[in-house]
């Protein structure tokens, strides 16, 4: 049973990846400082799996603490690196914090991995590296342009770091960069899901909290974009589908199937939906009427982006399985479960 370290493993995507890894026969190990996650996620993971997953409450930027994990778990075969700040708007307001955390933690992790001769990395990247693309959908060969936010720039910088490390003559690192789009939804058990601390930065939890009466009104950030209805278009992928992409990426690394030391894959549905389409689909599947208004544009947002998912299908054997409607239904089920806790 291969042991896989999962940084940010108590977070939204990380927790679902931990479940998917365990169910696929791997032994996940969680590292999380819980700065942007809740310990309740651990109980949800344990309830789904029926076992406790080894968990270390440390910061990935703390090299000494990270070494301690690698020493204790002395047969780690690979790492999935989720741990990062991820809010576009917050990154515009606090760019230094984002560069220190997102880039700094990767540098520390790569150094410790090299010390312990762990040579397999799945890196959590983002479609934000494409900036404002000239054409849609974006492929892995779409040129990366200046990112629209400091968050996007941290992902670009991290990808550059990985490529430069991999180009070194003594390099043994093999990496898969997963550029994913907009994860939504929750596990079918409603025991884990997206649990933002404070006011949500992402669309779907703001929708579900508005429907639940936690938020008075949903503000849609911009209604004058050059899109089908004036609102942003994004590629919304169910979080469990996304988690499964990480599992197949890990296996590809362990099997050394890639011909290059760094491979890049878009992970999305291949289809774009506008914010208004998401709102209307949620209203239909939940039976809830949302109180929303069109507000000003948000700094750092691109008008539209969605994936060409061909390479992931051919290279990873990965395709999404869950519709937008089912994804939103699972998010509402999760919100209702939270209300009962």
For the CA atoms, what is the radius of gyration? 19 Å
In CATH, the architecture of the largest domain is 3-Layer(aba) Sandwich
> In percent terms, what proportion of residues is strand?
15-25%
Oligomeric assembly = single chain
Helix and strand pattern = EHEHEHEHHEHEEHEEEHEEHEHH
Shape: globular
CATH topology description of the largest domain: Rossmann fold
CATH 4th-level superfamily of the largest domain: NAD(P)-binding Rossmann-like Domain
Poorly predicted parts: none
Count of individual beta strands: 13
Structural class, by secondary structure, is: alpha/beta
Helix content: 40-55%
Q: What strand order characterises the main sheet?
A: 3-2-1-4-5-6-11
- Indicate the CATH class of the largest domain: Alpha Beta
What is the residue-averaged pLDDT?
96
**Number of helical segments with 4 or more residues:** 11
The largest sheet, given as strand count, sense and whether it forms a barrel, is: 7 strands, parallel
Instruction: Please tell me the total number of domains.
Output: 2
In whole angstroms, the N-to-C terminal distance is: 35 Å
Description:
It is a single chain. By secondary structure, the protein is α/β, with parallel strands linked by helices. The protein has 11 helices and 13 strands. The chain has a 7-stranded parallel β-sheet with strand order 3-2-1-4-5-6-11, with helices on both faces. A two-stranded parallel ribbon has the order 7-10. Helix 1 (12-23) runs parallel beside helix 2 (40-49), helix 7 crosses helix 11 (324-339) and helix 9 (275-286) crosses helix 11.
């Amino acid at each position: 049973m291969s042991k896989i370290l999962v940084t940010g493993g108590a977070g939204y995507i990380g927790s679902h990846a931990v479940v998917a890894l365990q169910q696929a026969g791997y032994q996940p190990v969680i590292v999380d400082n819980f700065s942007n996650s809740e310990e309740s996620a651990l109980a949800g993971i344990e309830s789904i799996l029926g076992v406790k997953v080894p968990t270390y409450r440390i910061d990935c930027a703390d090299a000494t603490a990270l070494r301690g994990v690698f020493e204790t778990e002395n047969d780690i075969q690979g790492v999935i690196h989720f741990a990062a700040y991820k809010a576009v708007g917050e990154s515009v307001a606090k760019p230094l914090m984002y560069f220190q955390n997102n880039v700094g933690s990767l540098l520390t992790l790569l150094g410790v991995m090299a010390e312990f001769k762990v040579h397999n990395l799945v890196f959590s990247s983002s479609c934000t590296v494409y900036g404002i693309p000239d054409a849609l959908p974006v492929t892995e060969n779409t040129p990366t342009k200046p990112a629209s936010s400091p968050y996007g720039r941290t992902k670009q910088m991290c990808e550059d770091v990985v490529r430069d490390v991999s180009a070194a003559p003594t390099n043994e690192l093999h990496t898969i960069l997963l550029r994913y789009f907009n994860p939504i939804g929750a596990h079918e058990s409603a025991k884990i899901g997206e649990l933002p601390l404070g006011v949500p930065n992402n669309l779907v939890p703001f929708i579900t909290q508005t429907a639940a009466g936690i938020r008075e009104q949903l503000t849609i950030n911009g209604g004058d974009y050059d899109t089908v209805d004036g609102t942003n278009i994004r590629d919304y992928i169910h979080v469990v589908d996304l988690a499964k992409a990480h599992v197949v990426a890990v296996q590809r690394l362990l099997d050394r199937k890639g011909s290059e030391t760094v491979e890049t894959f878009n992970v999305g549905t291949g289809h774009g939906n506008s914010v208004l389409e998401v709102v209307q689909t949620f209203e239909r599947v939940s039976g809830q009427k949302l109180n929303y208004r069109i507000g000003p544009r948000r700094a750092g947002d691109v008008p539209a982006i969605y994936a060409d998912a061909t390479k992931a299908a051919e290279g990873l054997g990965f395709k999404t399985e869950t519709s937008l409607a089912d994804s939103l239904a699972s998010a509402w089920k999760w919100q209702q479960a939270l209300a009962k806790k």
